[in-house]
Design brief:
The protein contains 14 helices and 23 strands. The chain is of the alpha+beta class and 781 residues long. The strands form six sheets. The protein has an eight-stranded antiparallel sheet, with no helix packed on it. The chain has a five-stranded antiparallel sheet with strand order 7-8-9-10-11, with helices on one face. The longest helix is centred in the middle third of the chain and has 23 residues, at 288-310. It is globular, with a radius of gyration of 26 Å. It holds the Pfam family Hepar_II_III_C. The chain crosses the membrane at residues 44-65. Residues 515-697 form the Heparinase II/III-like C-terminal domain.
């Protein structure tokens, strides 16, 4: 992705993190005055930058690969299979890490444009028992697993001793493990130079930032100690734990049992997980007094409050998340308590560990595990997928390694195995299709659940996709990654996918999986309630990437501290008074300058040429390759008799047609938000968008009488209800607009990225075709 994306503001930060603030969620609404100023950011919400990543950091995957050879195979067959496996993995390792760099602006992997496909083959987990190439099988295989019957050796959470024993050799023979290992040590060294994480209470997110930063550090320090036995890492871990317990000079938060802020239980859960990792991974290195201190702190500020959260009375209202909460809260909270309980089983004399495990496991099955809908789409938003799946994967992995089973966490919802596919398709060449809220800073939260799911669901493409991502290099990846994976995630992967369960309804369409300059279009319909109050009023919303930039994008989260921001998702919710959440803040049609109807129940239809990418990173799109998505959005509006929106990739996926057919009894406004400099032709029928050296033209075809492009500032109308608190500024954003009075119209908007080397005569002007007659070949020129 070209590094010419328009940047928000000019302030910079003297950050100790070098390459940027770790996993900072770049919504200006999230920044609070008490925090240090953040680094310069792009206006579209995207991932923050991980510590010390200066080259591509592939995803770290793990999982145990047992021998897959038949017990009845002959010695000759076994030898031949072993040789073939070794050859396949050697071909992969000969190329090294597939991505050659990470784009510094968008943090996406950059792949070489090559037709050399020696290792870019079908995604596969190669069967081999070669200890240079694959994990051995876990010797702990209980015949009747129970959550309270744990393995006898340490560690028991995520990375058992047999994996630590095998890891140094695998690092020597796998380019991804080797690179991630280097980055983890580099990050740990940088953390070492920083003071212990300071206490900071954010009204919207509690102490979640400090909690996840502590967890991030504990993982890195513990990892470094186990591979080096250098006590500086052990000592530094203990300092971080003592700090969060309030035992250092100056204290840390309130001096009572609510120190870990259980009213915002995510904070409590993440700190409990951090303590669990330290207790378990460094178990044999701690002195008995240290071990006792860590366990006591974890019980006092974490596990005890977990029992309270599950009690019927729950005087602190800590446990709302354990009832009908199919999203990240349930996953994160149950995971923290589960990891904490598993870590101290056998040492705990209070019985609280066993008590909690009897609560968290069945509750997660009824809530967390149901978060993905039938097509794998996460219940909240594309960014909240990170938080929810991290909690789910950590919990399932901890239970599996500690007790020998995931207790159906991976299987009770068959759609969970599809949520990795959701993540792949919601990721564009420039950013996520980041509709709705984007959440707090990520820190210890990554997409490395893809590594775990890849192994557990036998989906090697998940691991292959994630291993080249910027957030792959962290300890979980070192154990969830299967080094016997081969192939390229894109080989045989369809360019389009439609997620059309009634709750979500969205489309992902692109021209390549490996070209950072590719065309990517995502559009959504779906219901406007039932998303844990993290969605926007955005039926018909879309984003467009091309030429290395995002032309139309999302504004992201508002200020989580704003009054009423999370009040509810009813029609009169105060949430819908904030510009970034209301309909006028989205890339869709606005009718009568009013919000959409929260009771919307759209219907959709779609089709695709089913074009797949081959093994080459050079994707030559056939001229007849196309895809379209049409949504009947009538139910999403008041004052509307009928309204449908269609999005069609045409001309070999080089142009995008957005067509709206609407009959409304009130004013109509077509709106799309862009970072580009916008120049409008004298007749108002063409808008030229420029970002850096890239240009896209937007044409209004067959314009109805009075229709023309204009621009507006991304601010609320003067006649809008005044929100409880002011909106965040959306500096540098322009709204491209078409305004019309009440009536019946067809609006045809053609988006033409100005592709290098493509002559003007190669662009087509499609015929005007009603949405009801759209097909893969119509409209055409």
């Amino acid at each position: 992705m070209a590094a010419n994306y328009d940047a928000l503001g000019s302030q910079t930060r003297g950050s100790p993190y070098g390459s940027g603030d770790p996993y900072y969620n770049e919504s200006s609404g999230y920044i609070t005055p008490a925090r240090p100023p953040k680094k310069t950011v792009s206006k579209w919400v995207k991932f923050g930058i991980p510590v010390a990543v200066v080259v591509i950091v592939g995803a770290v995957l793990g999982g145990v690969l047992g021998s897959r050879s038949s017990k009845n195979a002959s010695a000759n067959s076994a030898a031949a299979a072993s040789a073939a496996a070794t050859s396949a993995i050697s071909a992969k390792n000969g190329i090294g890490r597939f991505a050659t760099a990470t784009d510094s602006q968008y943090l996406v992997p950059i792949y070489p444009m090559t037709t050399n496909t020696a290792a870019f083959t079908t995604p596969t987990f190669v069967s081999t028992t070669n200890t240079n190439l694959a994990w051995p099988q876990d010797p702990f295989q209980p015949s009747n697993p129970s959550p309270t019957q744990v393995r006898s050796d340490r560690p028991r959470l995520i990375a058992p001793a047999y994996m630590w024993d095998s890891l140094p050799n695998l690092i020597q023979h796998d380019p991804y493990l080797s690179g991630w290992n280097d980055t983890i040590f580099s990050n740990a060294t940088q953390y070492m130079a920083l003071p212990p994480v300071a206490y900071f209470l954010d009204g919207g997110n509690g102490i979640l930032d400090p909690a996840r930063e502590i967890k991030q550090r504990v993982k890195a320090f513990s990892y470094a100690y186990r591979l080096t036995n250098d006590t500086k890492w052990l000592d530094r871990t203990y300092v971080e734990l003592q700090n969060a317990a309030g035992n250092l000079t100056g204290g840390w938060g309130p001096d009572n049992s609510t120190k870990w802020n259980p009213v915002h239980f995510l904070d409590t859960a993440e700190l409990t997980a951090a303590y669990a990792i330290a207790y378990d991974w460094l178990y044999d290195a701690w002195t008995l007094p240290q071990r006792s201190s860590i366990m006591t702190t974890m019980i006092t500020y974490g596990l005890n409050l977990g029992v309270t959260a599950y009690s019927n009375g729950d005087p602190g209202a800590y446990g709302w998340w354990n009832t009908n909460t199919e999203g990240n809260w349930n996953c994160v909270c149950n995971n923290g308590l589960t990891m904490g309980a598993l870590s101290i089983l056998g040492d705990d004399t209070t019985g609280i560990a066993a008590q909690l495990l009897a609560l968290t496991v069945p509750n997660a099955l009824q809530n967390c595990a149901l978060a993905p809908s039938g097509d794998g789409t996460w219940s909240e938003t594309a960014n909240y997928w990170y938080f929810g799946t991290t909690g789910h994967a950590e919990m399932a992995s901890s239970l599996l390694t500690a007790t020998g089973s995931t207790y159906d966490l991976l299987s009770v919802n068959p759609a969970f195995q599809l949520t990795g596919q959701y993540h792949m398709y919601v990721s564009g060449p420039g950013s996520l299709f980041n509709y709705g809220d984007c959440g707090p800073n990520k820190y210890s939260t990554t997409a490395n659940s893809m590594m775990f799911y890849g192994q557990q669901y036998d989906m090697p493409q998940y691991q292959l996709f994630q291993r080249d991502q910027f957030d792959a290099a962290e300890p979980w990846s070192m154990f969830w990654y299967n080094p016997a994976v081969t192939g390229a995630f894109w080989d045989g992967l369809a360019l389009d996918h439609f997620f059309d369960n009634s709750t979500d309804q969205w489309a992902s369409m692109r021209s390549s999986w490996t070209d950072e300059n590719a065309l990517y279009v995502a559009v959504k319909a779906g219901m406007l309630q039932g998303h844990q109050t993290h969605n926007d009023l955005d039926c018909g919303d879309f984003v467009v990437d091309a030429l290395g930039v995002r032309w139309f994008g999302e504004l992201g989260s508002g200020d989580y501290n704003s009054i009423g921001y999370f009040s509810n998702d009813s029609q009169i919710s105060e949430r819908w008074m904030y510009y970034r959440k209301m309909t006028e803040g989205q890339n869709t049609i606005l009718v009568n300058q009013q919000n959409q109807n929260v009771a919307a129940a759209p219907t959709v239809r779609h089709d695709t040429s089913a074009t797949v990418q081959g093994s080459s990173t050079v994707m030559n799109v056939p001229g007849d390759s196309s895809a379209y998505f049409v949504a009947d959005l009538s139910s999403a509006y008041f004052d509307v008799t009928s309204f449908s929106r269609g999005v069609h990739l045409i001309n070999g996926r080089k142009q995008v047609l957005i067509q709206d057919e609407i009959n409304a009894s009130a004013s109509i406004m077509w709106r799309a938000h862009t970072n580009a400099t916008v120049a409008i032709s004298s007749d108002g029928f063409t808008a030229t968008l420029t970002i850096g050296s890239a240009t896209t033209t937007v044409q209004l075809l067959n314009p109805p009488s009075g229709a023309a492009f204009t621009t507006m500032e991304p601010v609320r109308f003067a006649t809008d209800p005044i929100p409880p608190q002011p909106d965040q500024p959306n500096d540098g954003v322009t709204v491209l607009v078409i305004s019309l009075p009440a009536g019946s119209y067809t609006l045809e908007v053609l988006i033409n990225p100005q592709w290098p080397g493509m002559s003007s005569s190669s662009y087509i002007t499609p015929a005007s075709v009603p949405l009801s007659q759209w097909s893969l070949t119509s409209p055409s020129s």
